[in-house]
Fold this sequence. Notes:
Layout: H1 15-20, E1 43-47, H2 51-60, H3 77-82, H4 98-108, E2 119-120, E3 126-127, H5 142-162, E4 165-170, E5 174-178, E6 184-185, E7 201-205, H6 208-225, E8 230-235, H7 250-271, E9 275-277, H8 280-285, H9 303-318, H10 333-349
Parallel strand pairs: 1-4, 4-8, 8-9
Antiparallel strand pairs: 2-3, 5-6, 5-7
Amino acid sequence: MGDHPYATAPAHNFWRKSVASCDTALVDPVVNFPFKINHETKVATAGSCFAQHIARYLKDNGYNYYVTEPGHPLLPDSIKLKNNYGLFSARYGNIYTTRQLLQLVQRAYGAFSPIDDVWQCEDGSILDPFRPSAQPGGYISELEMRLDRRQHLSAVREMFENLDVFVFTLGLTECWVSRFDGAVYPICPGVEGGEFSEERYQFHNQSINEIVEDLTQFVVMLARVNPKAEIILTVSPVPLAATARKDCHVLTATTYSKSVLRVAAETIAMKFEHIAYFPSYEIITGSFNRGSYFADDLRNVLEAGVSHVMRLFLKHATGVRVEGPECNPAKATETVETETSQTRSVALAQQLVEVECDEARLDNS
Length: 365
């Protein structure tokens, strides 16, 4: 037999050698991750609820999780957590779509001022439409909300201008948009606040081209205020809680959404040298773990899965060698099957880590 390109390819190019012959916890799909984070690197996070896990592990392992909106220093940590301080680098809550991210930067720098920018609840309390769950119970007045928003957007500017690495977890393609000016909300109006009206709001499902364009605009704006910033993109493995596409099953809607986000992330990472993709999505949803990283609801991610993702993130992004065995391609298939069963049992026994997730409120039945 003659020579061919596969004859000298490394083990990670082959499914049998790097997936099928590995114990679940040893599968490592990361190859040549380009960035290195040290203990001084200012790492900021934003995105869907899965991004909160990255923040937690960075803090727990002594890395510089960069927070510019930490809450009043006299408040106990438990109160800060209840008021959503520290879940992300600023108190913007879940940012599920790239359009949300882009508009956050535009609002922070005065390039976009949405028309529909205040919601009043039946009890008289006030909500910020662009982070409706940030202030539990709402604000006592519109003035209080606007003053807090001013401080919040100042913290957002500080974050973007001073961070070293920005980790963004892409979550959804589906969103709800103002018919007046295209403002995008983190959740459908009427679910967590506001009053839904077909005359005011419309459903939109973003395409690959739209997401790539949003990310490109964001990258350009970030580079203007912080030329040294590097970006790590991930895709949330958490399925949609619900879809607004009446003619589409939530399973196929999830597949569309995650596929579009994954392709968009790859496109942007190939376009810009200072952007890298980290495969959180593949680690959690890959067939190699036989679904063992999901809770019984098949949506929330168990701590065993989060641990797998973050162990590899720390290994490749920080340069710290993680102790433990590596995948041995020579292992027999029956050994893999036995270990997988044991790993599944351990994973299912792990406590489900709570994260703040606006989207979960779409299904309140």
